[in-house]
Design goal:
By secondary structure, this protein is mainly β. The protein has strands at 15-21, 25-32, 48-55, 57-62, 67-71, 75-78, 84-89, 95-102.
Length: 107
């Protein structure tokens, strides 16, 4: 399957599709177009997340008010329990993300 196949033309809700889930690693394609996380909601995930923007643009805001702007090719590691939200995605074009969720094993 091609990561860019079966993209929606128009989307009302953000699209999340698991491409792989082994139980210890999950890889997800996310498609956004003007979608954001509600202002009163924060992601507080139990696993680490590595995300890359394959197309489009987005901003992620952390609970310490840090804002990270991501454009095509930009990637970011979000440690487990680092509160964050998607504060902006381009409303004029699809933003296609690839997110990898995993647990870090301490030695």
């Amino acid at each position: 399957m091609n990561i860019f196949s079966q993209l929606p033309n128009e989307i009302q809700d953000e699209e999340f599709i698991d491409l792989l889930n082994t139980g210890s690693v999950r890889i997800e394609r996310i498609v956004s177009k003007g979608h954001i996380t509600p202002a009163d909601k924060w992601y507080d995930q139990s696993e680490d997340e590595w995300v890359i923007v394959l197309e489009g643009k987005a901003e992620i805001t952390f609970d310490n008010d840090e804002i990270v702007t991501l454009e095509k090719g930009d990637h970011l590691h979000i440690p487990a329990h680092k509160k964050h939200r998607v504060s902006w995605t381009d409303p004029k074009q699809l933003t296609i993300w690839l997110a990898v969720f995993f647990d870090v094993i301490e030695n």
